[in-house]
């Protein structure tokens, strides 16, 4: 109960910014005395600060305004991409205080050296955050693969070539001794970033589609991720689009990834995926190339993107008929290709969604490719806001 | 809090049968004195009864065993089928105490006469239940169409030809004055029946597929229905199977219903749906005909059912990849055709689900075509068990 009320105060300050004790009491329906006790504990835990008395605009009785502590705990997010590694630190107010990204050829790379490199980047970002007075509270790692529910094990990440990799066990013990580590699918974290950080909030029920090399999706239902019985929900890339279509690495045929995955689009554009990967390495480089050529009017690229949009629309029509989301959000690298994919995608959705009276809102993420990394760091921040006392217990 | 504890006592008795006060106290973690007060209130509300002292097998201090009152409130369920109307009454212990079913040609029938007939059947079943001492607590109506979330309006029921029908407003006012009415999609209620009544409980996350004339599905996630933003989730029948396939009444092309719906299967079996509907009217009659011919070795019918199983498997593979359920349950009329559809269905699922290591459990419902009707009546019983005090308030 107390934990819940502490969390309520923090979430109120996160949502509405600096507020007086009286304003917090009014917002959460607790007495002034009750709020004062909660505030004392949160100050002691270093989770909030007082901005000093007489702040203009404060509602109710004059008093010092309270705010989340921008010099308290911070969340560290990391992303293992197929062609990059990124790490960032985010303070309780959501500001990115440190960030590193490096190009890396991770396809087929063994987990040990990859995670050793990632560990060094995390250590560097954590040191940077600490130098400004922040205390890293945890690390969440975004991976392009399936993570078994309730574990930190990557069951399968085909584009890395990983199977059964337990990430925390392979990170530097000096790091994991200091930082609790959690692992999640990049599409899930991208959807959480959309839910938490979108400048215009999306619906509380939406399908978030993202792409790096593969195509992933995440389902948000009533404001929470739908993870599935095993944690594997959201495998949009393997929804059959044309059941007699080309073989897919997953064992199926005619999966969406065979029509709208990066390699398929490069090939349909007359480009050789392997050559282009050598010529344009790094995160999003081939997507940027496609966007550039489409913008320049390259008919072959435009047709390839239109066909990818059609395939994505067919797969999403099935998903929308089954799930009835409030919106479909194109995020990740797909956001940059939206101008050429969206018309075909929307035509399929419009024609194939069972109730013609119902329009399915499609939106392009304003967060785009940063989603998984920001979602990872913010998920640590949310852990602190959700359970402030249990977060703080290791310190005492 | 008190409402919650009253409900907890009722659900404990529903799940475990007669128990002493001491056993109830131990199960729900409340003091003996606390349980006694709750029990007094539930006895007063006529929701439970004492079976008398000294019942053998009672745990703890000797004392009279408590049970749900089989002569208290009951739930009335009704089903509007395309070719039948059914009504039943279920007591708090789940026993069906009265039941009526009539064949009816409801395709294209206006809502007013249909609901007048349904109202007469409900009145008859309610009278029958009352004659045994039960008090009808509410009516839930199952419909083969989309019901807007939070309303009792059928937005669209293509096989009835209905659009925008607000059911309670069209029922006999003498009936609705006595009975609170709710309306839900038949597939949703079938899935709830599976969740509540299956002899072997299914997973808490499953996709329930059912069919009468159309094909519907319902999604159960963490033990609750996923209704979708507008209440329209579960439209499996309109998931694209072959995107360039035949036109569908929904406006799309190549929807699952075009391959595995009753009419499609009759046609593929060399039968004319309209003629057969005349020759074999009534609920499930054509499905029974198909099952009979398949059992007799009719090759054309067997091939038609196998192809329907393949199409269902393709659509479900997409849904399983997106939702990662613990099981897929074939319910409704489909349960009777499972022997001829399941092998092809399972072959598609096995080949197309992204993680080959993960087996998707497929099950055939033991409840079958009775699911929607039983789910409707039990959903009233659950309303009583969930909120005993607010249910009782109109009586006081």
Give the arrangement of secondary structure elements:
2 copies of one chain form a homodimer.
Chain A: H1 2-16, E1 19-20, H2 21-28, H3 32-44, E2 48-50, E3 65-68, E4 73-80, E5 84-91, E6 96-103, H4 111-131, E7 135-143, E8 146-147, E9 153-157, E10 162-166, H5 167-170, H6 173-178, E11 181-185, H7 186-197, E12 206-211, E13 215-221, E14 224-226, H8 257-260, H9 262-268, H10 273-279, H11 285-295, H12 299-323, E15 327-330, H13 338-352, E16 361-364, H14 371-386, H15 388-392
Helix pairs in contact in A: 1-3, 2-3, 7-14, 12-13
Family (chains A, B): Belongs to the ROK (NagC/XylR) family.
Organism (chains A, B): Streptomyces coryli
Protein name (chains A, B): ROK family transcriptional regulator
């Amino acid at each position: 109960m107390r934990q819940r009320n502490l969390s309520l105060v923090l979430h109120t300050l996160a949502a509405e910014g600096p507020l007086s004790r009286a304003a917090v009491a009014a917002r959460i329906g607790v007495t002034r005395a009750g709020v004062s006790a909660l505030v004392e504990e949160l100050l002691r835990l270093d989770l909030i600060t007082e901005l000093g008395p007489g702040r203009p605009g404060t509602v109710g009785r004059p008093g010092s305004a309270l705010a989340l502590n921008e010099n308290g705990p911070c969340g560290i997010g990391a992303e293992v991409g197929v062609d990059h590694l990124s790490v960032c630190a985010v303070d309780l107010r959501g500001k990115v205080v440190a960030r590193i990204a490096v190009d890396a050829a991770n396809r087929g790379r063994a987990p040990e050296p990859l995670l050793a490199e990632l560990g060094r980047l995390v250590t560097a970002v954590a040191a940077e955050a600490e130098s400004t007075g922040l205390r890293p509270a945890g690390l969440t790692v975004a991976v392009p693969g399936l993570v078994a529910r309730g574990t930190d094990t990557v069951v399968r990440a085909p584009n890395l070539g990983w199977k059964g990799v337990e990430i925390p066990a392979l990170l530097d013990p000096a790091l994991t001794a200091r930082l609790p580590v959690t692992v999640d699918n990049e599409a899930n974290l991208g959807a959480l970033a959309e839910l938490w950080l979108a400048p215009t909030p999306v619906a509380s029920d939406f399908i978030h589609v993202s792409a790096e090399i593969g195509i992933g999706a995440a389902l948000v239902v009533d404001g929470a991720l739908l993870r599935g019985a095993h944690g594997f929900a959201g495998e949009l890339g393997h929804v059959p689009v044309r059941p007699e279509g080309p073989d897919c690495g997953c064992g199926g045929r005619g999966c969406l990834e065979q029509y709208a995955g990066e390699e398929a689009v490069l090939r349909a554009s007359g480009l050789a995926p392997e050559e282009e990967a050598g010529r344009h390495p790094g995160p999003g480089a081939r997507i940027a190339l496609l966007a550039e050529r489409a913008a320049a009017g390259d008919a072959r690229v435009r047709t390839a993107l239109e066909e990818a949009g059609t395939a994505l629309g067919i797969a999403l029509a099935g998903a929308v008929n089954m799930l009835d989301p409030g919106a479909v959000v194109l995020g990740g690298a797909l956001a940059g290709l939206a101008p050429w994919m969206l018309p075909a995608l929307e035509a399929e959705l419009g024609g194939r969604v069972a109730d013609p009276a119902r329009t399915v809102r499609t939106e392009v993420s304003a967060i785009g490719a940063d989603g998984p990394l920001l979602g990872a760091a913010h998920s640590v921040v949310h852990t602190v806001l959700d359970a402030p006392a249990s977060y703080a217990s290791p310190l005492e």
